[in-house]
Amino acid sequence: MDKFIINGGLPLKGHVKISGAKNAALAIMPATLLNAGQNILYNTPQVNDVYTMNKLLNNLGVETDYSGFTLKINTSDITSQVAPYEHVKKMRASVYVLGPLLSRFGYAKVSLPGGCAWGPRPINLHLEGLRKMGAEIELDDGYIIARASKLKGAKINLDVSSVGATGNLMMAATLAKGTTIISNAAIEPEMTLLADYLTRMGARISGAGTAVLEIQGVDELYPADITNLPDRIEAGTILIAGAITRGCITIEDVDPAHLASVISRLEESGAKISIKGYSVNIDMTDIQYINPCDIHTSIYPGFPTDMQAQWTAYMCLAEGSSVVTDSIYVDRFKHVPELIRMGANIQIHENSVTVKGVKKLKSAKVMSTDLRASASLVLAGLAAEGHTEVLRIYHIDRGYQRIEEKLISLGARIERVTSTEY
Ligand code: EPU
After folding, report:
1. Is the same domain home to 37 and 48?
2. Residue 247, domain extent
3. What is the DSSP code (8-state) at residue 299?
4. C-alpha 306 – ligand 1 centre gap (Å)
């Protein structure tokens, strides 16, 4: 099992390119199940969650060719509609195959995802929406078994603006008979890209990028190609790496509009930010201290929950107290005890933490518990003086493409080593 050894305390400097978005790739890949033929996704990140989705698609009979960052997906010969537990337990996004398989083949059997590292993550809205579209759904032996000879259009209001439910129901609705209206739909850029991709396949979707989607079902969809978005969470994480080390870095190949909430908070914390086209520079070299700055996570375009752990690490070094509240996931604070081991002063109260800034973080051996928690520990390690070890970095490899290589190119001293420690 790999770990990172970080010798922190160096300001990062330089330029780095951001990879394609993991969460967009994880939605686009299963969408190809709606057609029969060769699809291409450009700018696919090389991360373990994408490899897991790739294997799941292969298991359904899909042929894939993954060279460089171009992923070719051939859906001409699908042989199974079953997503087994062994795949779903590794990655909850596997449930995205449910809508497309059911809509195209009239049947899908998908393992029900369990809890995740930081608490329950239900999929009731996915199932309720499909039921409204006429699906018969039963749970048997840990599996969702869904049947519908032909899904039919329905009016679906999502009680919570769920990314996954929006994606699954939008995909299912493309081949349904009649019109589906999804209100309170997620407007995250990954969902807008999915709507764009489905439209390229021949789907009739209006309202993409708004909270009300209207999908008129069609009889057939066709193969299509699309270029993935830049990963806004990887981009935000690396901006914080520049800020927390008091460095000066430029991230390239990003969409600054997707980073607006993170950029405005970084500016409030004192960072100088300049944006040119698809690049964002952050300069903290002349800044005396980091201003404490509260955040409250919310749906897009609010501050993303996927940046909450990294922001918490950053606020550990602010001059004063800040409150970090996660309104999307109430219990996503598994990084906090590990940050405390590095000298942070943090108290947890229900779905928020109070972070009292300290002068320095201290190096320590710390353990990753999930993807974004591990990113926060890497950030803390980059800022801490001395030798920090971050264990169980398979979590970070799920969603960041060789993050150590990007950080090394910015001057960080971080090394991946194989370890027998768990
Ligand atoms: N929710 C329900 N019922 C549902 C679905 C969701 O109550 O049927 C609740 C969830 O419990 C949560 C909220 O709705 O409180 C939002 O969950 P959502 O469905 O939007 O999350 P998701 O689709 O499971 C995606 C990302 C997550 C990201 C969330 C929120 C992918 C593959 N995953 O998850 O990304 O945190 O949206 O933005 O797109 C990550 O990349 O680290 C990650 C966890």
Report:
1. yes
2. 2-19+230-418
3. S
4. 10
The reply to whether the predicted model has a pTM over 0.70 is: yes
Is the C-beta atom of 320 inside 6 A of ligand 1? no
Same domain, 303 and 207: no
Q: Are residues 210 and 237 in the same domain?
A: no
CB distance 332 to ligand 1 below 6 Å: no
Active-site residues, by number, are 116
Contact between 364 and 385 (Cβ < 8 Å): no
CB of 124 within 6 A of ligand 1: the answer is yes
Does ligand 1 come within 6 angstroms of the Cβ of 398? no
The mean pLDDT of the chain is: 96
Which of 175, 192, 227 is where one domain is finished?
227
How, if at all, do strands 179-183 and 212-216 pair? antiparallel
pLDDT above 80 (res 115): no
**Count of domains observed in the chain:** 2
- Select from 172, 195, 227 the last residue of a domain: 227
- Ligand 1 pocket: which of 160, 237, 261, 398 to mutate (most atoms within 8 A of CB): 160
Atom of ligand 1 at shortest range from CA of 190: 39
By the 8 A CB rule, do 333 and 119 touch?
no
Tell me how far the alpha carbon of residue 324 lies from the centroid of ligand 1, in angstroms: 19
pLDDT tens readout for residues 25-80: 999 999 999 999 999 999 999 999 999 999 999 999 999 999 889 999 999 999 99
Provide the CA 343 distance to its chain's centre, in angstroms.
28
Domain co-membership, 217 together with 235: no
**Cβ neighbours for 342, distance < 8 A, ≥ 6 positions apart:** 316, 361, 362, 363, 364, 366, 377, 380, 381, 384, 388
What whole-number distance in Å separates Cα of residue 311 and Cα of residue 261?
12
Looking at residue 323, the DSSP 8-state letter turns out to be: E
Assess whether 411 and 335 both reside in one domain: yes
Q: Give the separation between CA 342 and CA 373, rounded to whole angstroms.
A: 14
Q: What is the CATH number of the domain that holds 159?
A: 3.65.10.10
Establish whether residue 164 lines the binding site of ligand 1, counting it when its CB lies within 6 angstroms of any ligand atom: yes
The residue nearest atom 14 of ligand 1, judged by CA position, is 162
How many angstroms separate the CA atoms of 82 and 350, rounded? 38
Residues 412 and 274 in one domain: yes
Residue 232 alpha carbon to ligand 1 centre in Å: 16
